[in-house]
């Protein structure tokens, strides 16, 4: 991982860059990198002093929203499994609409630079549109570029699902077992600060996922988020988020229900029920689509001390076409909230209302969670 060549000219910036690389491994509590005494031949050793972190971390979190009900998260992370920076993480998430267990193992490849990874997921979806139980297994490589601001990923994944549709629009295909092989490829640009605080920087990702097996289709998705601080002492923050998704190669009726594109909910379009932004069937259940567009804008202001006030507007739509109609009809939700900037991250309370309320929509939605929405 060293950032200098043996016998090269001394450059303090090389030592700073090396210290930053060691810090990015998340393996150490403290790191000191400096030059030792110069020898008669003009060379100086590089002295590295580190204090290792504890290898295990256990964490938990809770949330509540009127769209997804009470939720919780429990995770265990183990670092430096075999002494070369390997990381394993097991995480269990649960809410009324989804329960999942994810296990990820990541081995760094400093000379690459990047990593090799493998993951295993068990997912149980219980949404208004469908019930699905899925098993996913994947592996691949990740490579970092441009001072680690850009990361590209490529891999291979196997997935099987037992899907029970609750919709009446496709008689005879309500229950199915799907088997899919995919080759996901992604590129992510990331300059964000703390992932909970999210006070500066931006993050955008492009995903291309070709599937084959029970059905053949390709999912494309582009998501991004950014925020800017301004005013005296950076009192104000303006944050934005967007998502564009498309599906090519399969008609809506043939597409497995759990692979359709949905929109709506606390992480999507606030003010509307989970997955309800888009076309509904005769029973008022979300049909989903092959494409979607979402956008959100949020303004935050420090009121006093660690307390922020926020106002926001979210918009979104799901479409049956392969690619979204950018001039189509959108549903808009708006609202406000309070964030308490606690030592473990912002504790967020939001209330949102649907500005275009349909007979199936509630008068308002309520959200409590840890962390900024974007």
Describe the structure.
With 374 residues, the chain is mainly beta. 3% of the residues lie in helices and 56% in strands. The protein is built from one helix and 19 strands. The strands form two sheets. It has a 17-stranded antiparallel β-sheet that branches. Strands 1-2 form a two-stranded antiparallel sheet. Strand 8 and strand 9 (150-165) form a beta hairpin. The longest helix has 13 residues, at 12-24. It is globular, with a radius of gyration of 24 Å.
Structural category is mainly beta
Q: How would a crystallographer describe the biggest sheet?
A: 17 strands, antiparallel
How many H/I helices?
1
Q: What is the terminal separation in angstroms?
A: 33 Å
The percent range for helix content is under 10%
Question: What are the salient characteristics of this protein?
Answer:
single chain, 374 residues, mainly beta, 17-stranded antiparallel beta sheet, 1 helix
